[in-house]
Amino acid sequence: MTYSDATSPEELAELRRRYRAERERRVRPDGARQYLAADAAFGYYAEDPYAETPRERHPLRDRVDVAVVGGGFGGILAGARLRQQGVGRVRIVEKGGDFGGTWYWNRYPGIHCDVESHVYLPLLDETGYVPEWKYSPGEEIRRHAVRVAEKFDLRADALFSTSVTSLTWEETAQAWIVTTNRGDRFHATYVMTATGTLTELKLPGIPGIERFKGHTFHTSRWDYGYTGGTPDGGLTGLAGKRVGVVGTGATGVQVVPKLAEDAGHLYVFQRTPSSVDVRANRRTTAQDVGADREGWARERRDNFLRIVSGEPVEEDLVADRWTASAGLLEKLLPSFRRPEDRRAFEAAYEAADAAKMNEVRARVERIVADADTAEKLKPWYRYACKRPTFSDTYLQAFNRANVTLVDTADTHGIERMTEHGVVVGDTEYELDCLIFATGFSVGVSGVHSGKLPVRGRDGVELLAALRQRGPRSLHGFTRNGFPNLLQLGAGQSASSVNFTHVLDEHAVHAAALVAAAEAGDAVIEPSREAEDAWLAVMAEDAPDHEWFHAECTPGYYNGEGRGRPNGPHAYPHGAVAFHGLLERWREGSMDDVLKARRAS
Ligand code: NDP
Fold this sequence. Notes:
Largest sheet: 7 strands, mixed
Oligomer: single chain
Number of domains: 2
Radius of gyration: 24 Å
Helix content: 25-40%
Low-confidence stretches: none
CATH superfamily of the largest domain: FAD/NAD(P)-binding domain
CATH topology of the largest domain: FAD/NAD(P)-binding domain
Shape: globular
Distance between the termini: 74 Å
Strand content: 15-25%
Mean pLDDT: 91
Structural class: alpha/beta
Bound molecules: NADPH dihydro-nicotinamide-adenine-dinucleotide phosphate
Number of strands: 22
């Protein structure tokens, strides 16, 4: 059955039935427990394939103004904004061998950013850089991260190939003691954590996974020594090889076309198809994006944020499939505008959703020649249930004679693995190489991972405090009991699909707090009352999206099918309003977070 313009009540009812059936087919009783933390399962995955052997150095015992945990865009932006506030000693501590964070680790063939580069790459106005492509390849983004770090002179004090192992507040020093896996033990008056959200890579807990004797790796630790080539392709090492890839999310969609070009035969093991929309990547020029005007990048970035946050604009500057589908992002983000007439809104929303997903499914039919393969590649769920993807080469790859789609939905994923390959149903697929594009554990990076204990005032442990008192903060950045600790990109703020923009606003805010604390000889620590007030703001208008996610096909957006907690975990009026609120708050006295420093 095809649904070209399914907006009649009967057709919507049929779609609802179909979506429910697909969800039932996919949901597993073990939920998020079906995955393995990769480094716990296989030592190989913990290694850094891109770093030279870490240089020997003496452990550090000194004191800095700010220690920043994480050298991705969050940490780099924190450093840049601190520099603009005149803060001197900023030490970024980074597990990888250089700056870049997710763009350091993810170098798989085909890697691109799926948000427009002119709004995704931060500080374009300040660096004078104009991205070459509408959607940048990963390497251009990684180089920009390095460019920003170097422009703001963050390299000299940075520690690479180094993981922070503990943070302990020392009352007498009015500072944090930072320890690392390289023997460092130094003091930092302030600590900013910018540890990302999707950093701990995961593998499916497939029975027998450890028995496989072929070559195997995760997409975020690409082994070019084995495959040959570069992120642009040319994977000559795969010639004549039987290659499998598990996972068809945002990563799988980018990597499959490149593997298809060079593998002897490629088996794509799919459990849930992604929605794959038009990409239309192209080279851009400074004139295209108006880069001859001062402040062009900020203006464009603000315009994009307004659109994807449901705010009115006069013109859509980016004009891509994100902005075209912005109305459907309502359920994707925990915070968004709230409709006046809920029932009318939900009906219109469902109809628009059906039209969009029909268009996505019709595109599969148009592109994929084999009818059975096309049927399996059609996504049967609502648009915001999974992160939408964009590609003009992914669906086309399935028209190649050397590519086979193996649908594993009926068996809830790959059933088991043997020494030789992968078993689905009655078939064993013998493979020389199996690549996991299976993503990352959500919400367990950095201070939430359990690997980085944080002891605040009176030795109170952060994770224990979160368990006991629930998540409490002021604006998502600071917590009572944890002086001078600022968390960037964490919950209880407002997010966006353009995460670097969010991180930059957080960096601006956190740097301003540090500057104010320095100027006022104060420590940064919100009162319990300030936290209570923030919880109340979030709870007051919290949107009810739980029902939506409870009906979605499983994935990391809904706790693998459980639905997601509807508590006050985000600012309910969206990112634009949140950034405005922060700006107004900074213009005030800040006295609900600045406390007189205790005499040491
Ligand atoms: P995802 O978690 O989105 O996808 C993992 C894939 O692995 C899914 O297709 C999943 O299927 C599949 N899978 C898991 N277990 C099994 C199993 N046992 N058998 C078969 N298949 C299995 O990870 P990604 O790395 O693709 O993306 C993670 C996030 O990273 C994205 O959502 C996005 O935020 C970000 N990203 C951003 C990019 C960008 O351009 N900005 C590019 C790439 C990633 P199922 O869906 O059924 O669970």
